[in-house]
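agent> fetching stored inputs for the alpha-D-galactopyranose docking request
agent> found them:
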Amino acid sequence: MNTFLTNIQSSYSRYFSGNPLIVCSPGRVNLIGEHTDYNEGFVLPAAIDKAILMAFSKNKDGMIRLHSVDMQPDYFETPVSKTYTKTGIDWADYIIGVVDQLQKTGRETEGFNCAFGGNIPIGAGMSSSAALEGGVAFGLSHLFGLDLTLMEMTKAAMMAENEFVGVRCGIMDQFASLHGQKDKVLKLDCRSLEYELYPFEWDQMCLLLCDTGIRRALAVSEYNIRRQQCETGVSVIRKSDPAISSLRDVSLEQVKNFREEMDDLIYRRCRYVIEENKRVTDACAALTRNDLNAFGHKMYQSHHGLRNDYEVSCRELDLLVEATEQLESVLGARMMGGGFGGCTINLVNKDTLDDTIKQIREHYLKKTGKKPEFYVVNIDKGTHLIKNQAFKNRK
Ligand code: GLA
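agent> prediction call returned; pasting tokens
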């Protein structure tokens, strides 16, 4: 963390002056509950020890000045304004999108500087974009005394992605990054936005992410299509009961009753979401019983649903899951996040971790000719300020 912090401080000083406020904003994993958030269902994410550090300060010249340490182009600036338009730079859109969202909800900001960089792999499904958005909402709230609650920041960050960036994502990623707690997973009810914490710290087990290395452009368009398909399913089932407003209101039995009235594809999408919600609840019950075998089993079932019914997996993700199916050291594995590439998440025995990695690598290499990347991640706290006395003294 220290070199990481020193790097951000020196990058900040290259462009800006003064003592910045420094925010640490983490990526996230999701243990189970995929594509359920925008259906008002349940998810079980956690923040991780991979993060973006962001250094913020005010300026008096009415400009928003941004410096990315890791991405090109590495600088963008625009005047503070009443309305904002797309910047033409992906990373800048996430930041300006949040400023735009704050403005729309009556929280005006003045000129500010921001330098940021981190170690969340981009596009791997660990939500580097949500970490950036949440970090901006958190940082600006502190810098300008906006007094936003964590949930207000979460919503501003999500709306920035929906309205400014143009991805109709649900609330899970921004929520997890901002609300995460060390060694706890968060069971979020995406309808009421109430959540419960479950301890997730085991002497024997760790979380291993296996990265396919695949980044597919169609992930965004297919994501929006899945959302649309779920809405189509709801509009059919609603005919029986106008009080139904999302798949959260629909039982497995109800959807089965409508099987003849909807396209098979729509039927399978709906069935998956309803079953996945139940799996989250069952997985949490397994955690309460300390039954990690049952928890891992739900992870595999989740993957099968995502592959067969929701159809958001891909050959590479399937191969990484398949590679673990005969390994005793892996209790559960599944694709994580939106799909079509990125990572699988695996619940793995620590004692045999090296051998597990070796076996997965060999299987993947044999079938694809490529080597996957591996990340062991720890569950860590959500977005927070970093005390920065040493730096202050130096200035
Ligand atoms: C992406 C979205 C989330 C969620 C997942 C799928 O990560 O940003 O809101 O829908 O996909 O569970």
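agent> quick read of the result: The two ends are 20 Å apart (CA to CA).
agent> awaiting further instructions
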